[in-house]
Amino acid sequence: QVQVVESGGGLVQPGGSLKLSCTASGSVSSFWTMGWYRQAPGKQRELIATVTSGGGTNYTDSVKDRFTINRDSAKNTVYLQINDLKPEDTAVYYCNFNDKRKRFGKTVGSDSWGQGTQVTVSP
């Protein structure tokens, strides 16, 4: 079992910045991918960015100018720095942990989500 906990959300004025944190604990392997997603009211959950334990990153094109993902692999923690926040960034931000892999022909590992952290951008 892997537990995923996000933190760092809150109410921010337009143009402000936030840094979200996400930590995975429990049965965590050394090789994983963690990602940030967000879901605005009435919309589907969308990918923002992912990072691997080795440091490889991937971003959705629409956010890469203002969002930065990085990680502390020793702590199984990833961060999402968001700059120049806009009202349309208002959403619940979720963290995903995935270390699923094949081992002796069987799939092992976890694909776990946190409970989310609310980010509200408003004057």
Largest sheet: 7 strands, mixed
Order of helices and strands: EEEEEEEEEEEEE
Helix segment count?
A: 0
Total strand count, please?
A: 13
CA-CA gap between termini: 40 Å
Structural class from helices and strands? mainly beta
Brief account:
With 123 residues, the protein is mainly beta.
What would you say this structure looks like, in words?
Helices cover 0% and strands 56% of the residues. The chain is built from no helices and 13 strands. The chain is elongated. The model has no long low-confidence stretch (mean pLDDT 95).
What features would you highlight for this structure?
single chain; 123 residues; mainly beta; seven-stranded mixed β-sheet
Sequence-ordered SSE layout with sheet pairings:
Blueprint: E1 2-7, E2 10-12, E3 18-26, E4 33-39, E5 46-52, E6 57-59, E7 67-72, E8 77-82, E9 91-98, E10 101-103, E11 106-108, E12 111-113, E13 117-121
Parallel strand pairs: 2-13
Antiparallel strand pairs: 1-3, 3-8, 4-5, 4-9, 5-6, 7-8, 9-12, 9-13, 10-11
